[in-house]
Amino acid sequence: MGRNNPGCNILDPGLLENAVVNLSAVNEQATKLVNSRCLKNEFEAAWLLKAITCIDLTTLAGDDTSSNVTRLCRKAARPLPEDLLNYLGFEYDADCPIRTAAVCVYPSKVEAAVATLHMLGLSDKINVASVATGFPCGQTPLFTRLEEIKWAVKQGAKEIDIVIDRSLVLTGQWERLYNEIKEMRDACGDAHMKAILAAGELTNLSNVYKASTIAMMAGADFIKTSTGKESINATIPIGIVMCRAIADYYKKTNFKVGLKPAGGIKTSNDAINWLVMIKEILGDAWLTPELFRIGASGLLSDLEHRLYQIVTEKIGEPYEFSMG
Ligand SMILES: O=C[C@H](O)COP(=O)(O)O
Asked: For a substitution probing ligand 1, which of 60, 109, 131, 197 has the most ligand atoms within 8 Å of its CB?
């Protein structure tokens, strides 16, 4: 990962001047993006492999145990069956680029993830990301939210996915939102910080733009759409607005902040839609795990099925695939 976002020393209202969002234009752009492509198989396979390398492979369930986190890490290390990977021209050797970017877990499971990736010799290739700050709601006192970040970093998390306090957006307390996120940034130390906006709970796209910009001004390295627990998660219109906020922030500060859509991204088609959006709005420079992640618990198996279908020209039987 590159250097952390230095953010802005104060909340700069000038950066919020593009916060008026034309809803019908955004919806029109979203429709065009999802209908605009027709990929040949070999290009589709390349996009799908790219998607794998951008996944934060996630388990955030109440019944998570150390052993399912260990299994998740093994899947992150070898996301495809070996024969399928070989067909696609890669091998699971030390230089194999086909791994997920990170695993994403609750703070109490960071230790198990760090130990497994260390045992696999992949600590420097796959990061451990931890959610924090009272995920998914962020409704605990700031003091405990900050302590939770510090604890997760101490356990070995290299990336921290914080959630913002949505009530500060809904009541227009922008300065306080900025100050809270800035404190969270400081608590992360050297770890990268992804700010989860829970965009589906922010009422409108103008609030999504403002919250995105304030998170970046406060030092977020990534802005992330959702926790995966809201009723509206990562939608294409939300993604478009967040990409525009990232592009505007880059124009004004020359710093590239990443985007992490998360929540409900389950199919190969979904993954390609997001990759195409990044390419069209932010450009190729963002098409890298340094600047683009997909947070997903269930996407990988569909990518595997689709790649199998492309390679063999048949739909695989369920028994031909691993159990996730
Ligand atoms: O941060 C990642 C999300 O919680 C994953 O959501 P998902 O389970 O809908 O893929």
From this structure: 60
17 Cα: distance to centroid of ligand 1 (angstroms): 31
**What is the domain-level CATH number for residue 125?**
3.20.20.70
Number of domains making up the chain: 1
ipTM reported for the complex, 2 dp = 0.97
* Per-residue pLDDT band at 101 (split at 50, 70, 90): very high
Q: How far does the chain reach from its first CA to its final CA, in angstroms?
A: 27
User: What's the CA-to-centroid distance between 133 and ligand 1, angstroms?
Assistant: 17
Amino acid in the structure at residue 125: K
Does residue 323 surpass a pLDDT of 90?
Answer: no
The verdict on residue 298 lying in a domain is yes
273-285 per-position pLDDT tens digit: 999 999 999 999 9
Rama region for 118: left / alpha / beta (φ>0; ψ in -120 to 50; rest): alpha
Of 150, 260, 266, 314, the catalytic one is 260
Whether residue 2 is contained in a domain is answered as: no
pLDDT tens digit sequence for 123-152:
999 999 999 999 999 999 999 999 999 999
**CA–CA distance, 20 with 17 (Å, rounded to integer):** 8
**Cα distance between residue 55 and residue 297, in whole Å:** 9
Would you say the CB of residue 261 lies under 6 angstroms from ligand 1? no
Report the atom number in ligand 1 closest to the C-alpha of 265: 10
Quick one: which atom of ligand 1 is closest to the CA of 298? 10
50 is catalytic: no
Provide the whole-model pTM.
Answer: 0.95
Has residue 220 been placed in a domain? Answer: yes
Q: Is 224 a catalytic residue?
A: yes
pLDDT value, residue 319: 64
Q: Which ligand 1 atom is nearest residue 260's CA?
A: 1
Question: Containing domain of residue 80, as a range?
Answer: 29-320
Assess if residue 11 is contained within a domain.
Answer: no
Q: In this structure, are residues 250 and 13 in contact, taking their beta carbons and an 8 Å threshold?
A: no
Backbone angles phi, psi at 206, to 5 degrees: -65, -40
pLDDT, tens digit, 9 for 90 and up, residues 21-48: 999 999 999 999 888 776 777 789 999 9
Catalytic residue among 50, 182, 224, 314: 224
73 lines ligand 1 (CB under 6 A): no
